[in-house]
Automatic annotation (TrEMBL), chains A, B:
Pfam families, sorted: HTH_20
UniProt name for this protein: ArsR family transcriptional regulator
Gene3D superfamilies tied to this protein: Winged helix-like DNA-binding domain superfamily/Winged helix DNA-binding domain (1.10.10.10)
Gene Ontology molecular function: DNA-binding transcription factor activity
PROSITE patterns on file: HTH_ARSR_2
Protein species of origin: Nonomuraea terrae
Length: 113, 113
DNA sequence: TTGATACGTAGGATAATTCCTACGTATAGT
DNA sequence: ACTATACGTAGGAATTATCCTACGTATCAA
């Protein structure tokens, strides 16, 4: 629910790499993720926990293994967060944008340059 | 260029709020941003520095004031990062998943519009 | 039952983040 | 020149993040 957890979870390169693995290679047990990581297995477990708390990952227990799978739904929130910024990079491409920026920045010394 | 700085910059709620202010209210001097923040002015300056290092904000000196403006270009990188995950929530839109989602997730206005 | 396997959790060292209060610097106004 | 304003930076306290090694627990295989 809280966007804070989501952004915080994505702030770590290690956790983004874990997400990428799950995305490209499908659901996997924790150990398999860890063995290709330059990091101890318990640390990977910690990262997976953070991802789980952010709702980005879900686990399914299969015997003594725990399969982790990507849960992309929270990323919709990220996409929604991004939306109101879209007009800024679209406007950037027009000459009109510069004019509008100047008008809202300051109405006074337009000729100073 | 480094996505790490970008994600790290966005991890802080205070910095996201600053971005929102610059987006909704246009470029402003640092002090005006700070005075509506429940945070000391120097701390806001620090946050602005982090945003600047991430390329999300640019400053223009006007006399003794420094106007900060939103620089949305780096957010394109975030959008690109998001792209390969899109198919995952698209797959979830099959009839069965949509039903399950509605039951477990929320009664929100996803479909209400 | 015994031993190995697949994990998570505890505890701790170190580093990074986040906030503050001083203080320094440059500009503006008088 | 002198004071006020708008900032950033220094330095430090408190918190949180990030990694590790040890250890505990559940499952599987014999």
């Amino acid at each position: 629910m809280s966007a804070d957890h989501l952004f915080a979870a994505l702030a770590s390169p290690a956790r983004r790499e874990l997400l990428r693995m799950l995305r490209d290679e499908g659901a996997q047990p924790a150990g398999r993720l860890a063995e290709r990581f330059d990091m101890s297995r318990p640390s990977v477990s910690e990262h997976l926990k953070v991802l789980k708390d952010a709702g980005l990952v879900a686990e399914t227990r299969k015997g003594r293994e725990r399969h982790y799978r990507l849960e992309a739904a929270p990323l919709l929130e990220l996409r929604d967060w991004l939306t109101p910024y879209e007009r800024f990079w679209r406007e950037r491409l027009t000459a009109l944008d510069a004019l509008l920026d100047d008008m809202e920045d300051d109405m006074e010394d337009e000729d100073a340059r």
